[in-house]
Design a protein that fits this description.
By secondary structure, the chain is α/β, with parallel strands linked by helices. The chain has a single domain (61-257, 308-419), classed as Alpha/Beta hydrolase fold, catalytic domain (Rossmann fold, 3-Layer(aba) Sandwich), CATH 3.40.50.1820. Helix content is 41%, strand content 12%. It contains 18 helices and ten strands. The strands form two sheets. An eight-stranded mixed beta sheet has the order 1-2-4-3-5-6-9-10, with helices on both faces. Strands 7-8 form a two-stranded antiparallel sheet. Strand 1 and strand 2 (75-81) form a beta hairpin. Helix 9 (240-249) runs antiparallel to helix 14 (313-325). The longest helix has 20 residues, at 163-182. The chain is globular, with a radius of gyration of 20 Å. The termini are far apart. The structure holds 2-acetamido-2-deoxy-beta-D-glucopyranose (NAG). 2-acetamido-2-deoxy-beta-D-glucopyranose is lined by residues 115, 296, 298-299, 404.
Length: 425
């Protein structure tokens, strides 16, 4: 275990040392050095480099950038596609709001990368929704703070958060902003993976937010992780606490994978028979939950140009704690700080019975991160949950956002469900 801790530590150091290297160059190198199909079109290469506002505008959709400052000083960037290409096409008069929240190491890019006709944000805009995409503190678009510096040397103050703060502070701040800006009093929420975890945190800690939710669609819902089968998470879980403690002692709070950590992790976990070595060496795919049939490999450079988009070490550590103690609890700071922060030795459980907004749990049989047994337990404890299985056995965690058949297997159904519960939609 000591050796493992040092391996992880080494990777974190290498990562901190090399974190200046821009992702785009790395992708270029990855694509060129792989023996895998590299005949990507120039157009897709451009998509790998453009940021979300540039990319959405390139495809002739309207895009607004909004800034939201949280009560603890984080400056979050939101992206809005207010309508489809034809502004006059408003099927039912008024545009209902749909708020999209990305997963771990991701960003608002998740919802647009696959392009018009495939990516969910565009489909929603054409279906008559006013689409707002959040970005959690610490990712590429939300690496800003009123007083803390994310790049401070030997000081991790900016990075001292997990998905507890994302759910407890970021989501309410962004939801309040959207409702105030548009003058609506409710919205539909769609989250993927950590975007579901953060929602469950919000509605259990701040139940007044249930009233602002018309319906919530949880793609690959993650609360309990006792049955998690992700190789990387299982590798990290038993040492989560040590990794975070040591990382913060040496001044690393950001988990931003690059060349070095990917090489390290690739060697540690991927084996030679894996056909897609370049994919395998990406941290996203090491976390697990994709399948060859649903993955459009032409899009690989675009995906790798935008993901991973950054996260804190503590977000990983908190998931590690969930795997380790099989519960769904607030972040474990250790006994002394727990007593100060929570007035108890152990961190309190998130009270799932507080979540009374209508929650649709969209899950799949083969998802290693949102395992069916864990989804079942969540479903039983939720105030108002409905479980819906994606009708394809091999469908997996990342397929919810990038899967070739996501539109027909999932998105169309979700739009129908939102219309069914909301006369305005
Ligand atoms: C894969 O992506 C490319 C580029 O966007 C697209 O032309 C192609 O139709 C996609 N393939 C499938 C099976 O969706």
């Amino acid at each position: 275990m000591l050796r493992l801790t040092f391996t992880v530590l080494y990777a974190l150091c290498a990562l901190a040392a090399a974190r200046q290297s821009p992702q785009a160059e790395y992708i270029e190198e990855l694509v060129q050095t792989s023996n895998f199909d590299t005949r990507f079109s120039d157009d897709l290469h451009e998509d790998a480099r453009l940021d979300v506002p540039e990319l959405v505008r390139k495809y002739n959709y309207p895009l607004e950038v909004h800034s939201v400052t949280t009560s603890d000083g984080y400056i979050l960037e939101m992206h809005r596609i207010p309508h489809g290409r034809d502004a006059s096409n408003t099927p039912n008069g008024k545009r209902p709001i749909v708020f999209l929240m990305h997963g771990l190491l991701s960003s608002s890019a998740d919802w647009i990368l696959m392009g018009p006709g495939n990516a969910f944000a565009y489909i929603l805009a054409e279906a008559g929704f006013d689409v707002w995409m959040g970005n959690a503190r610490g990712n590429y678009y939300s690496r800003k703070h009123l007083s803390l510096n994310p790049d401070a040397l030997l000081n991790t103050a900016f990075w001292e958060f997990s998905w507890d703060e994302i759910g407890n502070i970021d989501l309410p701040s962004m939801i309040d902003y959207v409702l105030e800006y548009t003058g609506n009093d409710k919205l539909h929420y769609i989250g993927h993976s950590q975007g579901t975890t953060a929602f469950f945190v919000m509605c259990s800690l701040r139940p007044e937010y249930n009233e602002k939710i018309i319906s919530m669609h949880a793609f690959a819902p993650v609360a309990y992780m006792a049955h998690n089968r992700s190789p990387l998470f299982n590798y990290l879980a038993p040492n989560a606490k040590d990794i975070e403690t040591i990382a913060s002692l040496i001044g690393i709070g950001e988990f931003l994978p690059n060349n070095n950590i990917m090489t390290w992790a690739g060697e540690a976990i991927c084996s030679d028979e894996v056909i897609y070595q370049p994919i395998c060496s990406s941290i996203m795919f090491l976390i697990g939950g994709w399948n060859v049939e649903q993955f459009n490999k032409t899009m690989l450079p675009v995906i790798l140009g935008h993901t991973p988009a950054g996260a804190s070490v503590r977000q990983f550590a908190h998931y590690g704690q969930s795997i380790d103690d099989k519960g769904f609890r607030r972040y474990d700071h250790g006994v002394l700080k727990n007593l100060r922060v929570y007035r108890s030795i152990k961190p309190p459980n998130y009270d799932l019975s507080n979540i009374v907004a209508p929650v649709f749990l969209h899950y799949s049989d083969k998802d290693p991160l949102a395992h069916v047994n864990d989804v079942d337990r969540l479903f039983v404890e939720l105030g108002a949950g409905i479980k819906i299985r994606v009708p394809m056995t091999s469908f997996s965690h990342l397929d919810f956002i990038w899967g070739i058949d996501a539109k027909t297997l999932l998105y169309e159904r979700v739009i129908n469900l939102m219309r069914a519960v909301d006369p305005q939609a």
